[in-house]
Hints:
Blueprint: H1 2-25, H2 36-53, H3 58-94, H4 106-117, H5 128-173, H6 179-183, H7 190-213, H8 229-246, H9 252-273, H10 287-296, H11 312-319, H12 323-333
Amino acid sequence: MRIFAAIAGCILLLVVLIDGFDTIILTRRTRYMLQFGRIFYRVTWAPVSALARKVQSGRTRENFLGIYGPLSLIALLTLWIAGLILSFGLLQWGSHMQPEHAQPTFANELYFSATTLFTLSSGDPVNWASKCLTALEGGLGLSMLGLVIGYLPVFYQSFSRRELAILLLSTQAGSPPSAAAFLASEDWKSYRLERVLMHWEKWSAELLENQISYPMLAYFRSQHQSESWLTTLVAILDSVSVILSCGTEEIRPQAELTFAMSCHAMVDIARVFWDDFPQPRNDRLSSDTFGRLQKTLPDRAGACLKMSELSEEDVRDLRRLYEPYAEKLAQYFLMTLPEWAPVSIEPNKWRPGKKSPHRRSFSVSDPFKTDRG
């Protein structure tokens, strides 16, 4: 029986160490057979998202979902610690541990394992196998503490950089963002639009790097209920799709680079969570929406766009490169994809010279409808 306990302890210890290494230290996407963190998020997110769908108020729903990300990170760290305690308890029991001041029972060995991991042990085992396991567990406990202390600041810095760019887009593309609002936000000059596209190319690259290195970052909601990393990325891709369809030759090279980087980010982030992507079920760009898009842009898009060359077929061809991945992510994370051209584009109340209209409250997880709470 003790031999099987020792084998189970070795397997559990290996699973915890591999998952901790994969999550904290190894900054790349992997496909291990035993990914404890991946299973943990799939199992815990399913009931949370199901419960969130029953909440009527968009504001309440977003606040509820916003708690999941930080809480899940704490729960994952707690489960790693519990796994280490249990694995070393099984190993100590399997090695016939002989504690100085307690009976060699499994309960006592679990307690001894916990005090050793937190460097609070008040006694030493007698046999050499247990002494080696005690030293190893104490070292892992200190290493785990150091890694967590170093990991959390880097993680939250990545979150802060992501959110800063999302807030910057809201001054141009509205909140929630849309391609029509972005392109109609000012009289674009070639040099100005090129610089903005370069900024979003860089942001897309940072988003890809951060959310592959820290996949749980995708579960962290934005600080404003009408914004999210997914709606921002899709709004950028929608806007660049229009630019590629009818933009001037001067702006097209940078637009192609931004589209390629943003599309790369969308596909790779989606593949962190799934391998299959069915065709989209919802058509965000209907004929009526495309008509509104054409009417919105002619007088306000500047000299960078030739609206006579805007082709619905070209835009649809570009959409096929990212729409299936975007819709799958939206369904999973309860995030509604942005509109191409809202029925009315409200001016940004924070920009000088703009009126401050009464703005309706929107929630990312509430199909951009008026908040019912």
